[in-house]
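INFO batch 0412 | record 1 of 1 | parsing
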Amino acid sequence: MKHVLVPISTSDEVRWAAEQAIARYRKEPAHIHLLNVQRPLPQHISRFFGGGDLRNFHRDSGMQVLAPAMRMLDEAGVPHRDHVEVGNPAKTIVEFSERNNCAEVVLQDQSDSLLAIFGLGSIGSQVRHLMQEHADAAHGSEASGST
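INFO prediction complete | emitting tokens
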């Protein structure tokens, strides 16, 4: 069964993301991974908290974002795994996808704007840009290794 990553950054994306996950699962059963990436707190704030407190804060904040999508998938009978990570959203999504061998990353917006082409627009366009860079690098290393 393939792995499908459904990153959800904000509560505005929940309904669309959950509907996409349900539709993909019904078309072809897959391991669905819901992911929320929390940005790290600035050092001038985080230094006042222990590591466990920060982990709990990020986990709780991320799960609040994922909770409505989790309910929708549960109600539709779609099994899922739920993850919260901390870091740069686009980079963390790409790294998570690679670590978990995700065959697909479900992203909402597709833009052909100049910002998107250079990976400077939305998180979705940044993820697409990074994934293309990784694919190009892998293709380049395969080509150089075969000569």
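INFO post-check: Residues 112-120 have pLDDT under 50 and may be disordered.
INFO record closed
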